[in-house]
Amino acid sequence: MMKNTSRVQPDPALMPVAQRRRFGGAALAAAFSLFALSIAWHEAHGPAARSTDEMPITQAHADAAAQASDGQATLAGPSAHGELVKRGQYLTRVADCAACHTADKSRPFAGGLPISTPFGTIVTPNITPDPDTGIGQWSDADFMRAMHEGVGKGGERLYPAFPYTAYTRVTDQDVLAIRAYLNTLAPIHYTPPANDLRFPFNQRWLMVFWNLFNFTEGRFVPDPKQSAEWNRGAYLVEGLAHCEECHTPRNFMQGLKSSARFSGAVQAGWHAFNITSDKTSGVGDWRDDQLVAYLSTGAAPGRANAAGPMGEVVANSTQYLTPVDLRSIVAFLRSVPAVSGGDARSRDQWGRPADDVTAMRGTTITGVNGAQLFIANCATCHSWTGEGVGASAPGAYPSLIHNSTVGANDANNLALVILHGVNRTTAHADVLMPAFGGHLDDEQIAAITNYVTKQFGDPQATITTGQVAKLRTLQ
């Protein structure tokens, strides 16, 4: 007679109570595991499966780079990688990476630009694919971690002068497209100077505590209550374009003050104006086409002309945005809650033509005279009346009447424009105003500034010789 060697399954009814409980728990755990695995398989392979980076907003946030190509990229055929690189080039322009990572135009993206902060000077790094001094040895995961979490390849905490606080909203797909484009750049072997930060701000590990109060990691989530156009604009403004980094005031830790988003702030002396929907202090009274024109050309006649950092943003970034993306940005800005700056009158509603030439004829000028300095240095382009030359033509010399820089309630931007000039090149025009900082002293710059604000702008906006001297030192 053969012996049955198969294992006899225990009868739960005959087991001790503790053993029955263990058996029941194991069975429950096994059942739950099978259920979880089935759900995971369904999510991964089911008909509705879709990567987060393939959600509609990702497809909508930026047009194909082919629509924005300016002929600087040469791609070999319509390969998937080629399209990824083109898209990455477009997104890199949206993010305006070149502005901070290029100190010398002969070394694009090689870093070295000093950025002044209240805690010292931060110098931007080399992001070309050089393996020794750039990011050539960074993996995609390293690059993603820096963009999303503010952590470098070696685990070092990055300073928020690099706006990872905004880039954290950018989708993985877009970050990898930017990375693909940067990989095509010419490697430049260059090590920028070290940061010059005071103790304890030179201790990177302290950024752990800064992040606790000022940083929320996570990708952009579309608002289902808003239109696709609005979501597209929100993704661009709050993420890649990182507009808040300049246009939102900061708290004592230099984090963004969320209670006053987009209400304006001062960076290195330059006033980034209020861009909320407030009709007096912000852009709520601007027409859509004026906002689009300003972003794409740097000029909105009767409103503003971009100079300083914003002029660079237009030249390096926003002029390349597609019409769809520009309209999306405007749609989002329209929804930004109005924040009053306390202005009684819009910046672009000041001024009247001057008649000082007639009044000065035959008179003897003594001392430093703002009107005389204006006529001698500025009237050739802006007319002695201040009405400009060329009306609203692309290459026109702008009117100082109804000009938001001249009509601002502080004179910093105007003084900085006189000091450093304007050099804004777009597809529409090459705009050049010479820098007078090397030819006129601080007293003369202050005199011209105060004459212009008194005659063509807000008469209450004045500047002292000492303030001009300080502005000269800012980077």
UniProtKB/TrEMBL annotation:
The keyword Membrane applies. Residues 83-186, 228-337, 365-456 form the Cytochrome c domain. One of its GO terms (cellular component) is plasma membrane. Heme c 3 binds at C378, C381, H382. Its cofactor is heme c. SUPFAM superfamilies: Cytochrome c. Keywords: Cell membrane, Electron transport, Heme, Iron, Membrane, Metal-binding, Repeat, Signal, Transport. Heme c 2 binds at C243, C246, H247. InterPro entries: Cyt_c-like_dom, Cyt_c-like_dom_sf, Cyt_C_IC, Cytochrome_c-type_DH, Membr-bd_ADH_cyt_c. Heme c 1 binds at C97, C100, H101. Binds 3 heme c groups covalently per subunit. It is found in: Cell membrane. The keyword Cytoplasm does not apply. PANTHER family: ALCOHOL DEHYDROGENASE CYTOCHROME C SUBUNIT (PTHR35008:SF8), BLL4482 PROTEIN-RELATED (PTHR35008). This is Cytochrome c. It comes from Paraburkholderia sprentiae WSM5005. The lineage of its organism: Bacteria, Pseudomonadati, Pseudomonadota, Betaproteobacteria, Burkholderiales.
